[in-house]
Amino acid sequence: xxxxxxxxxxxxxxxxxxxxxxxxxxxxxxxxxxxxxxxxxxxxxxxxxxxxxxxxxxxxxxxxxxxxxxxxxxxxxxxxxxxxxxxxxxxxxxxxxxxxxxxxxxxxxxxxxxxxxxxxxxxxxxxxxxxxxxxxxxxxxxxxxxxxxxxxxxxxxxxxxxxxxxxxxxxxxxxxxxxxx
Length: 181
Prior knowledge:
By secondary structure, this protein is an alpha/beta fold. The chain has helices at about 30-35, 80-85, 95-100, 135-140, 160-175, and strands spanning about 20, 45-50, 65-70, 85-90, 110-115, 140-145. Mean pLDDT is about 80; it is low at about 175-180.
């Protein structure tokens, strides 16, 4: 169940800010919906993302004054907007994107991401969409997180010791017996 936050976005963001949006199944929909519905005096935000599942809400015509899209992957959800000139496409290799964030080539004012609930030590997982999200979260001046209850802390994580490495090797070999590690 999603509840409305009604955050005062113009207190933490400024018009013209570049905002990274978590990717794939890790799009923080509740935060995005709240921002789109309660922008205050904001306009001309640049939303940077790599890929979203389906058509993102921020790509709708009614949000064009608020949001300019900068997609680093030309997915189905924004292809028409790029072709029509309403969105930008920045082609680059996925492996290069963290460098763009870390070195300030693509400076991030904010990152809106989804995380798991914290574990007993206070750590959260980036869950199903780690890809470039960790680099974006570290590089952004403002970090907005949406906690998703059905993402477990151990999704996408394992203890990096010999026993756990061997378990992963066994799983890989089970499905890809020609792989040599």
